[in-house]
């Protein structure tokens, strides 16, 4: 087994070695962080972004966004449950991953991961979902028979207090959790950026803007993902899309893209103007290795086009169906752009030599653990989880129950 | 004790026992730096190891690389190196070409053609710089890579989780993931040899004494003399890693 996998690895490395241009340090031929580490920040970004969208309702009282509050929360949860998997799978020794909890190295940014992840999942997301749904679980446990009834009973953690005081407490608790949740969401994804940004050995990564660029792109991808999910669910359920809500979310999305673009542009301009030792090889990296994924996919298709569509949808008085389509298309394009951005950071940073004298190649495997196939499975899993979640947990408050938000 | 109490206590006992066991393990292995270096009467705190490399003396024979691979069970495939040799060629127009001698198949008997355009060429042996200020140690999430009291950066292959963050953090490309152990791997200065008073394998086999191993804390050390008589450079000084591999007559083109 080991010999077989190593044989496949050696073949991949031999192929990559044949593609090297210029000089690289000999150990650099292996791309250490491959497609799974591209998937990981993409998924956590969606978690952070979707949660921040939900928090607009709770903390900032943006009434228009209320119809998708629960959906945003569930989207964040579905992606969060998968967020740790690509990391664990890419480890040389996944069975030792618990060491991060038991003997964390205090100077390591990565050692923080386990704690931030657990904190976010347990103390923020699960708690907020529970308080949001508690009263409804109780109602549904009463109205449903058999297994489902019992399940809702368990989900309500056997609470049965639906008095106005208890409901008021739910509301208060969920608001408090959101207030704690916003900095936590910032931490969750900002820290992912820090993992890359703090590596002084790699000038493509090493940037103080990295955490904040990751955060803004997270907000973009999270909001866009909720738009996609909301549109599809409405279509499947044959329900009318709340255009007031979608317009508002589209506006937030537009602003987030502009801020994200401004930050990334600042990063590039700053690098070009400073023109440090690495500038030449980074230029070659962009023109030879990342032209399609960076210039075409990330910037043109994944940022300029959706930016133009969203701006156009705001300026012109178009009908609902057309606007809905425009939001949906730009949300899809933004996913391409943000995934491209993750790719360009993670893979791009490993395609040039730290000797600044050569470029490496990455040949993605189709099957296996570190492969396109596995990446697609990991990207599909959150949607499967979400499909189960929205079936189990209604995305709209039940009739007779006041919305928990305000 | 009734059934309920028993169950309650069992529930507490099992994770508590696991935790205690782990803590005991951590406590026992806490000072790995000392544990790694207390064979016999060897006192790690009395040493601070380094290596001197005289660039002018290296003839690029690659024997150090072969010796290292044999001594340390480094996979023979040309993708994994604890040490390697680079050849720099400076052309008349100022262009610099670099190649890695160690990844190329050995030359035959015939003398290579001399390129008249090349005005100067030289070899540079590379290895882990055993930084006094190692970025790899800083980023390791589980403390599997650490610095010994005698200044050598080692990897505990029983603790390493194979996240490869250290490989990313190394400015010198000195680390790789060992395909056999699935853990990070790198030059150890042949720690198993030097703590026994021997030389690292690469130093021992070098036919021109281009590599000098020694102890900065010993005044009689050849390394201390090497530092005194040569103009010394380190690789990528701007990284502030404080390398303990010191180069004499290092060209500015070398990164």
How would you sum up this structure, described in words?
The complex is a heterodimer of chains A (406) and B (255). Chain A has 406 residues and is an all-alpha fold. Chain A has one domain: Formate dehydrogenase/DMSO reductase domain (Formate dehydrogenase/DMSO reductase fold). Chain A contains 13 helices and 2 strands. Chain A has helices at residues 2-18, 35-58, 69-90, 99-102, 112-143, 146-155, 164-197, 210-237, 243-274, 279-289, 291-315, 320-346, 372-392, and strands at residues 21-22, 358-359. Chain A has a two-stranded antiparallel sheet with strand order 1-2. In chain A, helix 9 packs across helix 11 and helix 9 (243-274) packs parallel to helix 12. Mean pLDDT of chain A is 93; it is low at 402-406. Chain B is an alpha+beta fold and 255 residues long. Chain B has one domain (35-255): Alpha-Beta Plaits (2-Layer Sandwich). Chain B is 26% helix and 21% strand. Chain B has helices at residues 3-28, 32-35, 63-71, 135-139, 165-169, 191-194, 201-205, 222-229; strands spanning 49-54, 83-91, 96-100, 118-127, 145-147, 153-155, 176-178, 183-185, 211-215, 232-233, 245-248. A 4-stranded mixed sheet of chain B has the order 9-1-11-10, covered by helices on one side. In chain B, strands 3-2-4 form a 3-stranded antiparallel sheet, with helices on one face. The N and C termini of chain B lie far apart (70 Å). Chains A and B meet through helix 1 and helix 4 of A and strand 3, helix 4 and helix 5 of B.
Quaternary state reads heterodimer
Radius of gyration of chain B: 22 Å
Q: Write down the domain tally of chain A.
A: 1
Low-confidence stretches of chain A: 402-406
Count of all domains of chain B: 1
Q: What is the share of helical residues of chain A?
A: over 70%
Give the H and E element order of chain B: HHEHEEEHEEHEEHHEHEE
Largest sheet of chain B, in brief, is: 4 strands, mixed
- The percentage helix of chain B is 25-40%
- CATH topology call of chain B: Alpha-Beta Plaits
């Amino acid at each position: 087994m080991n010999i077989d996998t190593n044989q496949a690895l050696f073949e991949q490395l031999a192929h990559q070695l044949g593609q090297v241009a210029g000089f690289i340090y000999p150990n650099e031929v292996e791309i250490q962080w491959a497609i799974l580490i591209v998937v990981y920040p993409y998924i956590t970004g969606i978690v952070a972004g979707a949660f921040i969208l939900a928090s607009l309702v709770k903390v900032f009282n943006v009434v228009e966004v209320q119809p998708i509050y629960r959906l945003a929360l569930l989207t964040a949860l579905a992606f969060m449950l998968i967020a740790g998997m690509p990391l664990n799978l890419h480890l040389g020794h996944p069975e030792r991953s618990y060491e991060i909890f038991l003997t964390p190295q205090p100077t390591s940014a990565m050692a923080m991961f386990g704690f931030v992840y657990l904190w976010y999942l347990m103390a923020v997301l699960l708690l907020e979902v529970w308080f949001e749904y508690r009263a409804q679980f109780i109602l549904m446990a009463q109205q449903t028979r058999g297994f489902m009834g019992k399940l809702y009973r368990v989900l309500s953690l056997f609470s049965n207090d639906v008095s106005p005081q208890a409901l008021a407490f739910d509301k208060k608790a969920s608001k408090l959790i959101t207030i704690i949740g916003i900095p936590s969401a910032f931490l969750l994804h900002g820290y992912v950026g820090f993992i890359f940004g703090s590596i002084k050995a790699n000038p493509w990564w090493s940037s103080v803007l990295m955490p904040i660029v990751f955060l803004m792109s997270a907000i973009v991808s999270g909001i866009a993902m909720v738009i996609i999910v909301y549109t599809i669910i409405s279509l499947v359920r044959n329900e009318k899309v709340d255009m007031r809500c979608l317009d508002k979310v589209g506006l937030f999305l537009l602003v987030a893209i502009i801020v994200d673009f401004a930050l990334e542009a600042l990063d590039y301009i700053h690098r070009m103007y400073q023109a440090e030792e690495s500038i030449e090889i980074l230029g070659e990296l962009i023109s030879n290795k990342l032209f399609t994924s960076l210039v075409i996919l990330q910037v043109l298709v994944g940022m300029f086009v959706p930016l133009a569509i969203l701006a156009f949808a705001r300026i012109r008085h178009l009908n609902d169906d057309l606007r809905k389509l425009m939001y949906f298309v730009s949300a899809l394009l933004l996913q391409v752009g943000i995934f491209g951005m993750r790719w360009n950071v993670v893979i791009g940073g490993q395609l040039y030599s730290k000797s600044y004298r050569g470029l490496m190649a990455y040949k993605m495997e189709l099957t296996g653990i570190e492969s396109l196939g596995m990446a697609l499975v990991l990207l599909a899993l959150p949607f499967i989880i979400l499909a189960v979640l929205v079936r189990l947990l209604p995305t709209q408050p039940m009739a007779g129950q006041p919305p928990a938000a305000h | 004790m009734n059934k309920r109490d028993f169950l309650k206590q069992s529930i507490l006992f099992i994770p508590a026992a696991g935790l205690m066991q782990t803590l005991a393990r951590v406590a026992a292995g806490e000072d790995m730096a000392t544990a790694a270096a207390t064979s016999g009467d060897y006192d790690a705190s009395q040493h601070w190891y380094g290596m001197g490399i005289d660039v002018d003396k290296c003839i690029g024979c690659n024997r150090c690389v072969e010796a290292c691979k044999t001594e340390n069970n480094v996979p023979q495939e040309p993708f994994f190196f604890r040490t390697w040799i680079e050849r720099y060629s400076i052309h008349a127009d100022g262009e610099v070409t670099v190649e890695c001698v160690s990844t190329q198949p050995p030359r035959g008997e015939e003398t290579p053609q001399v390129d008249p355009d090349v005005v100067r060429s030289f070899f540079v042996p590379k290895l882990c710089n055993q930084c006094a200020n190692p970025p790899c140690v800083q980023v390791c999430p589980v403390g599997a890579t650490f610095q010994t009291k005698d200044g050598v950066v080692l990897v505990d292959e029983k603790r390493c989780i194979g996240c490869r963050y250290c490989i990313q953090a190394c400015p010198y490309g000195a680390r790789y993931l060992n395909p056999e152990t699935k853990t990070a791997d790198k030059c150890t200065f042949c720690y198993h040899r030097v703590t026994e008073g021997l030389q690292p394998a690469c130093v021992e086999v070098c036919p021109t004494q281009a590599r000098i191993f020694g102890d900065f804390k010993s005044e009689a050390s050849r390394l201390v003399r090497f530092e005194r008589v040569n103009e010394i450079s380190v690789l990528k000084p701007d990284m502030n890693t404080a390398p303990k591999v010191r180069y004499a007559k290092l060209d500015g083109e070398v990164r």
